Amino acid sequence: MSVSLPALLSQLLLGLVNGSFYAMLSLGLAVIFGLLNVINFAHGALFMMGAVLTWMAMNYLGVNYWVMLLVAPVVVGAFGILIERLLLRWIYKLDHLYGLLLTLGLTLLIEGIFRSAYGVSGLAYDTPDALSGAFNLGFMILPKYRAWVVLASLVVCFVTWFLIEKTRIGAYLRAGTENPRLVEAFGVNVPLMITLTYGFGVALAAFAGVLAAPVIQVSPLMGQNLIIVVFAVVVIGGMGSIMGAILTGLGLGVIEGLTKVFYPEASSTVVFVIMVIVLLIRPAGLFGKEK
What's the confidence (pLDDT) of residue 243? Predict the structure, then answer.
C-alpha cells in the first residue's frame, strides 16, 4: 500500500487532536481513581454536560465560548461535588463494583434527562471567530481550532500533573488517600480535600467537553462514544497513573490515526487490541505500579 508523506503527516496531526481528548478525559479518570479509588463511569456523561451547557449558554443566554471555557468546568465541578457529598462518600470502603454501578446509574440518569430535552440529534456549535480559519503547513491545511485543542490540552495536562506530583497540595492528596488519620493529625481536612479532588476531576471532563463542542457534534449521547475508549486508555497507562493517562492518551490517538492510513478497518479496535496485549504482558499497565 502506497501512502504519500502529506497524507501520513495529516493523519498524525489529526490523531494528535483525538489523543488530546483521550488524554484530557483519561486524566480526570486517573485523578479520581488514583486519589479516591473510585471507578467513575459517569465521566462520559459529565464530559457531555460540559459541551451541552456550553451550547445552552450560547443559544439561551448569548454567553460566548471563552466564558464557558471557565464557567462550564466550575458548574459541572460543583455538580460533581454534590455527587461526592451525597452519594460517593458512602461507598469508599466498599468494593469497586459499588462505585462502578452507582456512577453507571448516574450516567443513565444524566443522559436520560438531556435526551428527553434535546433528543439524540446533534446540536450545532460554531467555532469561535478568533479560532476560525486554518494554517497552511504545506503538507496539509490545519484548522486553527484543532491546533488550539492540542495546545490547551497539553497545558492543562501538564499543570494537573505538576500540581499533583510536584506540589505540597499534591503530597497531601496522595498521603490523605493512604493514611487519612495521619494527615488529619497535621490539621488537614481530608474529607474536604477528597470532595474537592472529585470536583476537580469532573471539571477536567467538563473542560474537555467545552473543547469538543465545536469539533464533535454536541449530543446527549456524545460521551458514550468516547468513554469506553478512554477507560481502555486508563487501563493501558495504569489505573491511577497521571503521567500514564497523559502519555497513553496522546500516543493512542496517534496510533489510531496511523491505523486509519494503513488499515482503516482496524482503526476502531486497535486501542482494545493494544489493551489486551499490554494486560497480558504487564497487568498493572505501562506506568502502573505492580502490587
Answer: 87
